[in-house]
Amino acid sequence: MPVTIRSATLDDVPAILAIERQAASAAHWTVEQYARLVESGLVLVADEGSNVSGFICAKMLADEWEIENVVVAMQVRRQGTGDTLLRELLRQARSQGGSAVWLEVRESNQPARCLYEKHGFRESGRRRGYYREPIEDAVLYEWRVPSSE
User: Fold this and answer.
1) Which domains does the chain have, with CATH numbers?
2) For the purposes of burial, counting CB atoms within 10 Å of the CB of 61, is it exposed (0-12), middle (13-18) or buried (19 or more)?
3) Distance (Å) of CA 18 to CA 1, 35, 45, 64, 79
4) Mean pLDDT on 33-50
5) Ramachandran bin of 40, using left for φ above 0, alpha for ψ from -120 to 50, beta for the remaining angles
6) Is the pLDDT of residue 25 over 70?
7) φ, ψ for residue 131 (rounded to 5)?
8) CA-to-CA distance for 50 and 1, rounded, in angstroms?
9) Distances (CA, A) of 77 to 13, 53, 71, 92, 138
10) How far apart are CA 142 and CA 66, in angstroms?
11) What is the pLDDT of residues 103-148, one digit of tens each?
């Protein structure tokens, strides 16, 4: 079934929360926190036949964006949903005058790190012992809008 990427609505928050709870490495937030992000930030969802199968959350800080959470439902992982979500977020960042996109990810989250690197993100630093349960470094990534665009 084809995936459509669209802006999240408040009606999507329960599905977003359910998907997030499937992923141990995701940031875990409350319904209220997701609702605030939907209302004031940028939350995109992957919609497959009226079912939310993934999401990406970001914040815009002047001309720089920060990706805060990316999660794809277990049953559709490794099928391109995360790739499609990230590509659309980067497209929106470019079209809205963004100069850079930042994120942090658990050092052990190799599938996510490979996805980011595939899209041109470069490792820009580390936060030692940043994550808990288990204690783990956060790897910081940065993506810059190509100068030819």
Assistant:
1) 4-144 (3.40.630.30)
2) exposed
3) 21, 14, 13, 29, 19
4) 87
5) alpha
6) no
7) -85, 155
8) 11
9) 20, 9, 9, 23, 22
10) 9
11) 999 999 999 999 999 999 999 999 999 988 889 999 999 999 876 5
Structure tokens at 146: 């190509």
Structure tokens at 47: 């919609």
Q: If phi over 0 gives left and psi between -120 and 50 gives alpha, with beta otherwise, what is residue 68?
A: alpha
The two tokens of residue 20 are: 């997030």
Contact between residue 75 and residue 91 where contact means Cβ atoms under 8 Å apart: no
Question: Tokens 């100069």 identify what position?
Answer: 99
